[in-house]
Design goal:
By secondary structure, the protein is mostly helical. The protein has 19 helices and four strands. 52% of the residues are buried. The protein binds protoporphyrin IX containing FE and copper (II) ion. The site of copper (II) ion has 4 residues, from α6.
């Protein structure tokens, strides 16, 4: 399909900006493994301190990259499947809001005025421009949904009896989840944090802020994942040389995510004393509910891959694994997707541990956590994002992939790195190694009284994995920018691999409409979140102290010459 120049340019920028910023994110990832291993005993390097770097790492990799990509990918899938283009004014307005927001927040982080990590929990306080930037990024990412909904309704009118293409359904579900969950964080940022950061309000209800953050924060995880799921369902079977085992399974899974992505955020607050245990229990159970669409996906994809392998001549129970196109440079997207899926097995298993109300106590705030989520967000999500970015760019620009053989091994190198890295972190976590800590200053400094030799092998392992991941990322940058700077040699067109369904069930109206699902979603949300918000407001604990925008220490502490709670709260 041919796209207009304006839309092409929009998608290129939305892919190119975050991948350029990613270089900062990756650099800090490597630095964190170095600081933590005790190879250096410094609080800062190249003018950026540990928490500044960790904030940049989390915000760029997990928020900026994923949001820009989801919007770009949404434009591509809707245009491709509905055979019409989004409104360019809306598209560019959204782009500029997101870009200006990113520039504002990046300035605050690089200037050292927003070292609050990507969760920005009070009483850690950032410069007002950080909060404003985050709000603009979010509002910018909302706009396309309204335009896509308009495109979808127009398409539906012309095709009342055709099933909505799965990729379109997935994109709409994803952005509905995103819209609903970001309402809470927009409220947190604009009503609670910004006035407090400006010095207009004396305090913030910390528990309420955290509860609103996690209303958003778990759904954010699905916002990261759904573009990858769309690729798994609609592209992977085709790339493997087969068909999607069941189209209906994909629809059921997507609506399952719509219902269950948001009302589970309290599972990040099992340790928060203000929230009562009934609420934690209920949301903990709902969390296990999310396992249902996840398992539907796992079985459907496994069956689709088996079908592909058998078509390619595989025999025996598991012979199909040997027949898939792992190293075919012309189908490199398969490599990115399958490598991510493989990591996701471990990401899912470790996630079940986190979701358990009881076991969570063992791993909470330890290195186990980054061990887990580098196998999810830095696993299937990240690999799908970078693989699809270079794929889309190459197709839409008509430029051949630069170094195609290197490109196809990048995902496997990344997986090798992550497996070593995450094993180190998870192992350390089980021995109490904390996350969000520059261990080299104390626990991994032999000169320090807190020196903890048990964490030497675990952090060294994470360092080795981190080096391999960095090499993979650098190779990816070479491929991506090499492709951008090469000459056009082919016809430029937006083309996506499209999987046919093996079982193309007839259209069931319930799975082709949003209304009943949205109503059910609202009911579950009210049930799960009214008691949580009630707890957070009735029983808030101590509020965050008052700050002025220019000083990271609270006013009371400065006047009484006490250490800043902000510095303590990080640890
Ligand atoms: C070379 C690649 C990477 C390395 C070596 C790396 C390393 C690390 C390490 C060691 C931490 C934990 C630091 C601490 O808790 O003290 C961390 C945190 C984190 N990483 Fe990565 N990472 C890499 C890539 C990525 C990617 C691609 C993503 C997401 C797409 C990502 C997302 C995150 C997030 C969200 C955190 C949590 C930040 C926080 O606790 O506030 N990382 N990373
Ligand atoms: Cu969660």
């Amino acid at each position: 399909m041919q796209l207009s120049k304006s839309l092409k340019r929009l998608i290129y920028w939305e892919l190119g900006i975050p991948i350029t910023l990613l270089s900062i994110g990756i650099y800090h990832g490597l630095m964190q493994t170095i600081y933590r291993s005790g190879a250096i005993h410094e609080s800062k390097m190249a003018g950026l301190d540990y928490y500044q770097g960790l904030t940049l790492h989390g915000v760029i990799n997990a928020v900026v990259l994923t949001t820009f990509f989801a919007v770009a990918f949404g434009h591509a899938t809707l245009s491709f499947y509905l055979k019409r283009e989004p409104n360019k004014t809306v598209g560019w307005t959204s782009f500029w809001l997101m870009t200006i927001g990113t520039v504002m927040a990046s300035w605050a982080m690089l200037a050292g005025k927003a070292s609050v990590l990507y969760t920005f929990y009070p009483p850690l306080k950032a410069h007002p421009l950080f909060y404003l930037g985050a709000a603009l990024l979010i509002v910018g990412s909302w706009l396309p949904l309204f335009d896509w909904a308009r495109m979808y309704r127009a398409w539906k009118k012309e095709n009342p009896d055709t099933k909505t293409p799965l990729a379109v359904l997935g994109t709409l579900v994803n952005f509905i989840i995103w819209f609903v969950c970001t309402l809470a964080v927009a409220y947190e940022v604009l009503v609670l944090l910004l006035p407090w950061a400006m010095g207009w309000k004396t305090t913030v209800n910390v528990t309420l802020a955290r509860t609103l953050f996690w209303f958003f924060g778990h759904a954010l995880v699905y916002f990261w994942l759904l573009p990858a799921y769309i690729m798994f369902y609609t592209m992977l079977p085709k790339l493997a040389g087969g068909k999607l085992y069941s189209d209906l399974a994909g629809r059921i899974a997507l609506f399952g995510f719509l219902l269950l992505s948001v009302p589970v955020g309290v599972h990040h607050q099992f340790g928060d004393p203000s929230i009562t245990k009934g609420v934690k229990m209920f949301q903990g159970l709902l969390t296990y509910g999310v396992a249902i669409p996840s398992f539907i996906t796992a079985f459907t994809l496994a069956a689709s891959l088996e079908y592909a392998g058998r078509r390619r001549g595989a025999r025996g129970l598991l012979g199909f694994f040997g027949k898939l196109p792992y190293l075919d440079p012309s189908r490199f997207l398969f490599a990115y997707l399958i490598a991510g899926l493989f990591l996701f097995i471990f990401g899912g298993v470790t996630g079940i541990v986190n979701a358990s109300y009881q076991l969570n106590n063992v791993v909470h705030n330890t290195a186990w956590m980054p061990g887990h989520f580098h196998m999810t967000v830095a696993g299937p999500v990240f690999l799908a994002i970078i693989g699809m970015s270079v794929y889309l760019y190459s197709k839409m620009s008509g430029k051949k992939i630069f170094l195609p053989r290197i490109n196809v091994i990048v995902p496997y190198l990344w997986v090798t790195g992550i497996l070593i890295f995450s094993t180190g972190l998870s192992w350390g976590g089980l021995q109490g190694e904390p996350r969000r800590t520059n261990l080299g200053l104390t626990y991994l400094n032999p000169q320090h009284e807190l020196y903890t030799p048990e964490w030497v092998p675990t952090t060294l392992m994470a360092l080795c994995g981190g080096i391999i991941m960095t090499v993979a990322a650098v190779l990816f940058f070479v491929v991506f920018f090499g492709t951008i700077f090469s000459k056009r040699t082919e016809i430029a067109a937006l083309e996506l691999p499209v999987s046919e369904a093996l079982h193309d069930e007839k259209r069931i109206p319930l799975f082709d409409t949003f209304k009943p699902w949205l109503v059910t979603m609202a009911v579950i949300l009210v049930l799960a979140y009214s008691p949580a918000l009630f707890d957070a407001t009735r029983n808030p604990g101590k509020g965050a102290p008052r700050f002025t925008p220019d000083n990271p220490a609270p006013i009371e502490a400065t006047s009484a010459a006490k250490p800043a709670p902000a510095a303590i709260a990080r640890h």
